Amino acid sequence: MCTLALLPYLEPLLTRPQQPDNLCGPYWIALLLQVLGGISTSAIEVAIAAQTILPNRAGTWTPPGAQSLRGEGYDQIPTVSAIEHCGTSLAGLMQATQKLSHGEFCLLPLQTPHWEVGLTQLWQLCQTRLDWQIVPLLNSHTGYFWGSQLSPAQLLGYLNSGQRNDISPPDWSVGHFALLAGQIRGTLASLYAILDTYPQLGWAGLHLQPSSVLAASLVRPDYQSQGGVALFVSRAVRSHVEQAVIDRGFEVAVWDNGTPAPAG
Q: Over the Cα atoms of the chain, what is R_g?
């Protein structure tokens, strides 16, 4: 028997448009401010506030099946030729969240040397304190993910045996922001439900990953950049959430995902 749990306050995000190119982090902050804070903003406005950096040349920035997408004001975002420096830093997203919400919301950046255990603790905290409306924003590297199009046989086979049989390779390989939105539990194993910025992935952007895969995607052992989890929370509960994660062994610290932090 399998059971699925989703964070109920994220249900309005289950149907959403595709992100603009290279703006996954700003996309999520814009949507979360809209849905949880009633604050009207856009991914491009968040990107400008976060000092996002875009590539100055054409490239394949989207997963298979997705079309390139930009928007009004896209040309206001600075560009560079060094692809490895493009994107949005975690420090930039924190700055943009604070600024555009006028301090009503923030990102709490978490690090731990034991992400498999940490993900379990985070999910339990989100589930037991639904009133805090904690949103875990994952800064992963998708090159470690399972392919998003799991068949029912693969899904049930893993949940009921814990064995990985014929799992397809990742759809794409980039540094990326996505939401930890749920968990499905089987007889012997479980999978986390990841809400992505591209509806072409999984089931309308909801795909499933085991904790070991998510942990690797956050640690990024094959890359110089780092990942982590930032908790999107309201100012009203920030101190409670911070104490709760510290009590669970997390360090509240910003990581370097490869994109330069905002100046000043």
A: 17
Q: Between 229 and 82, whose confidence is greater?
A: 229
- The C-alpha atoms of residue 220 and residue 222 are separated, in whole angstroms, by 6
Tokens of 213: 């895969």
Name the pTM for this structure: 0.97
Q: Are 74 and 44 in contact (CB under 8 A)?
A: yes
Tokens (6 digits) for 133: 């409306």
Contact status, residue 159 vs residue 134, Cβ threshold 8 Å: no
Measured at the alpha carbon of residue 82, what is the angle toward residues 77 and 88, in degrees to the nearest 5? 45
Helix (H, G, I), strand (E, B) or coil at 58: coil
Dihedral sign, Cα of residue 197, residue 64, residue 213, residue 95: negative
pLDDT digit string, tens, across residues 177-190: 999 999 999 999 99
Residue 71 half-sphere exposure, CB side, CA atoms within 13 Å? 15
Residue 192, Cβ neighbours under 10 Å: how many? 21
**Residue 206: phi, psi to the nearest 5?**
-100, 115
CA 4 from chain center: how many Å?
A: 19
Cβ 145 vs Cβ 217: under 8 Å: yes
Give the tens place of pLDDT for each residue, 201-223: 999 999 999 999 999 999 999 99
Residue 212 tokens read as 């070991």
Read off the pLDDT of residues 19-36 as tens digits, 9 standing for 90 and up. Answer: 999 999 999 999 999 999
Beta bridge partner(s), residue 195:
179, 206
Task: Please provide the average confidence, as pLDDT, over all residues in the chain.
Answer: 94
